[in-house]
């Protein structure tokens, strides 16, 4: 295989005995050319080195650039051996003449001078063709990936002497027969009125023609050829009451400078429709081969998706086996500044809706689970592609982590900081087309839903109504709030069975918090009680080496930051030979022995000091008891003396200031009595004051 450019986009080209396969890196679209279909191979010099031009028997042309000149012999031998084709060498005419002959071959318009081509135009890139008196003007689709795009080419067609044939009209008809020009010929097959569209925003009438879609809104109209539809997605909303129908477009539809790569329609599951196609039954059967019928009825989203699938001839991608914490097949998250839904698919991820993002597994380099920046109740899910593009989906609920991690693990995607382990290599084929999956998940889903409907039709309507109501619990957000703040967690719960399960979980959360906090307190206490005279722990071999070489590293790298210095030191230590490391290991061992010796001496000294401290504590306690006894005796004597001189006491109290009263006698008499009974020491100031006032 080889990295090459196919027409306008980069990709990978593989040549095998069965044929040629090219996979577009941007869109994931696969061109598969069977060996039996190849009619001609041309090797020529182009702007990007050398190119390969392949022509098939049915008139299609494929061009791939980016080859080296030395690869011609190898490719020529391969074509002879396996395809039985001569790889012809043809040079482009570079004379600069602008007068020549136009030849139409398959999908190509070739402008030749003599037998040499000057340039070729793929007619599928033509968006409009207009004619003048002796002129034909070709307009092209704009290439968004290129800085400069060719938008228009004019050809002068001289008049001829032949009667009845207009050369200008003949030229234009040849172009229009193969060009991607939208022409509203005939009536629409069907019309869907007032559909809610999220991208581009608004309500649109969608008219479906045999070759294109026509979106008619109040302000803008869009015409979308079926050939530009890349993929179709049908995604459930998290509330289980709405559905997203996503149409991926390449090239995108344009409105001024805005490009819409995705067309997103939002449907309610409750909306039903009866649809009649604007074709007779024979035409419907002949064209759609049983995929559609003239008269159809069902949910609106089913009808739109069914018609689109039949006309565009693309399979509809639906979410796979993933199921989130709440039972939904998508995850609520934020991308860039907007909140949306991330749906894990069988072969990729899709985010709706602003802006829509589709990431295939085969273009993912690795994924990463990161801690949330603002709160610990959420985390970020990061994806980096092989092209270096990064996508960060933030504010994902913590409860979704286990389910999403298991999904990523099952799909064998490389997770950052864990490395690509054995058996984790991607099992999918790099050249497999994500659209051409043998298993049609959408068809299986429709069959399952049909069975469920038949079962529900036999049951009572009341029972089915209860089931749908239970699946959506608007009160879940309130429960989360109460759980987060823990101020009144029980208030948010109700007597229902579903809520009782959440209440059972809450005590477990609180117990967990208590368990986490206790060891921290013990650590703080041990740090506070640490003896400053205790010997310091010995350094490791690496730290000894770092202290000795820190200044040297700083001088070698002036202006280096602390973090970069530690990184650089780690690299130097890792690259150091085993002999040099052994020298620092010996030093670390000597330091450890010295530490153990110092600790033995310290422990002996600390025991003697602790015994002295205990003896001094006992003495202090005895002295305090003796002092309390003396104080109680004095208090009793002062109370008796104050009772004999109560009139004097009342006089002294009447002369007390407001500040004195408020500070000392703010509490009631009962509280004073209780305090004095409980604590003898606390009653000392009051008794001394009373005795003093009595003596006065």
TrEMBL record:
It comes from the Eukaryota. Residues 535-603 bind DNA. The keyword Nucleus applies. The keyword Transcription applies. Residues 535-603 form the HMG box domain. InterPro entries: HMG_box_dom (IPR009071), HMG_box_dom_sf (IPR036910), PH-like_dom_sf (IPR011993), RTT106/SPT16-like_middle_dom (IPR013719), RTT106/SSRP1_HistChap/FACT (IPR050454), SSRP1-like_PH1 (IPR048993), SSRP1/POB3 (IPR000969), SSRP1/POB3_N (IPR035417). Residues 448-543, 599-696 are annotated as: Disordered. It comes from Phaethon lepturus (White-tailed tropicbird). One of its GO terms (cellular component) is nucleolus. The lineage of its organism: Eukaryota, Metazoa, Chordata, Craniata, Vertebrata. This is FACT complex subunit SSRP1.
């Amino acid at each position: 295989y080889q990295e090459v450019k196919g027409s306008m986009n980069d990709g990978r080209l593989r040549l095998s005995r069965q044929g040629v396969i090219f996979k577009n890196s941007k869109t994931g679209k696969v061109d598969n050319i069977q060996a039996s279909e190849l009619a001609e191979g041309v090797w020529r010099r182009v702007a990007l080195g050398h190119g390969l031009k392949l022509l098939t028997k049915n008139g299609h042309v494929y061009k791939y650039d980016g080859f080296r000149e030395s690869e011609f012999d190898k490719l020529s031998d391969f074509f002879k051996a396996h395809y039985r084709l001569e790889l012809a060498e043809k040079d482009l005419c570079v004379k600069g003449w602008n007068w020549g002959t136009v030849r139409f071959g398959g999908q190509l318009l070739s402008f030749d001078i003599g037998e040499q081509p000057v340039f070729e135009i793929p007619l599928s890139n033509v968006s409009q063709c207009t004619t003048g008196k002796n002129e034909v003007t070709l307009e092209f689709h704009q290439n968004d990936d290129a800085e400069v795009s060719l938008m228009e080419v004019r050809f002068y067609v001289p008049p001829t002497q032949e009667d009845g044939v207009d050369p200008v009209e003949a030229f234009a008809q040849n172009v229009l027969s193969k060009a991607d020009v939208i022409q509203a010929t005939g009536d629409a097959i069907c019309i869907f009125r007032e559909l809610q569209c999220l991208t581009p925003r608004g309500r649109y009438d969608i008219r479906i023609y045999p070759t294109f879609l026509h979106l008619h809104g109040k302000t803008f109209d869009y015409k979308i050829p079926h050939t530009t539809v890349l993929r179709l997605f049908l995604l459930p909303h998290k509330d289980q009451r709405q559905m997203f129908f996503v149409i991926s477009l390449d090239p995108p539809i344009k409105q001024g400078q805005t490009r819409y790569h995705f067309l997103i329609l939002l449907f309610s599951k409750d909306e039903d429709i009866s649809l009649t196609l604007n074709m007779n039954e024979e035409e419907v059967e002949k064209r759609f081969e049983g995929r559609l019928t003239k008269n159809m009825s069902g949910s609106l989203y089913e009808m739109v998706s069914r018609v689109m699938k039949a006309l565009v001839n693309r399979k509809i991608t639906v979410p796979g086996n993933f199921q989130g914490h709440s039972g939904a097949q998508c995850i609520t998250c934020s991308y860039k500044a907007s909140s949306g839904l991330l749906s894990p698919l069988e072969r990729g991820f899709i985010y709706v809706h602003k802006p829509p993002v589709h990431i295939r597994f085969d273009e993912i380099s690795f994924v990463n689970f990161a801690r949330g920046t603002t709160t610990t109740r959420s985390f970020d899910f990061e994806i980096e592609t092989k092209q270096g593009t990064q996508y960060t989906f933030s504010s994902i609920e913590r409860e979704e982590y286990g389910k999403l991690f298991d999904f990523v693990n099952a799909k064998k995607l490389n997770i950052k900081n864990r490395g690509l382990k054995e058996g984790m290599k991607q099992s999918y084929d790099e050249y497999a087309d994500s659209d051409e999956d043998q298993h049609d998940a959408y068809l299986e889903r429709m069959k399952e839903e049909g069975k469920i409907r038949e079962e529900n039709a036999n049951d009572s309507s009341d029972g089915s109504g209860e089931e749908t109501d239970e699946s959506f619990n608007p009160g879940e957000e309130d429960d989360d709030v109460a759980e987060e703040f823990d101020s009144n967690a029980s208030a948010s719960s109700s007597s229902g069975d579903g809520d009782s399960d959440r209440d059972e979980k809450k005590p477990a959360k609180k117990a967990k918090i208590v368990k986490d906090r206790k060891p921290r307190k013990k650590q703080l206490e041990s740090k506070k009680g640490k003896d400053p005279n205790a010997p310091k722990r010995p350094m490791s071999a690496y730290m000894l080496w770092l202290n000795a070489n820190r200044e040297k590293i700083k001088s070698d790298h002036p202006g280096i930051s602390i973090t970069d210095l530690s990184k650089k030191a780690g690299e130097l230590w890792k690259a150091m030979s085993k002999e040099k490391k052994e020298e620092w290991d010996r030093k670390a061992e000597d330091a450890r022995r010295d530490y153990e010796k110092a600790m033995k001496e310290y422990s002996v000294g600390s025991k003697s000091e602790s015994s002295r401290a205990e003896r001094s504590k006992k003495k202090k306690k005895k002295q305090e008891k003796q002092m309390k006894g003396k104080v109680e005796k004095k208090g009793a004597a002062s109370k008796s003396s104050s009772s004999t001189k109560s009139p004097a006491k009342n006089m002294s109290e009447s002369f007390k200031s407001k500040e004195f009263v408020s500070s000392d006698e703010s509490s009631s008499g009962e509280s004073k009595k209780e305090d004095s009974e409980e604590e003898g020491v606390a009653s000392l100031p009051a008794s001394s004051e009373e005795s003093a006032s009595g003596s006065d």
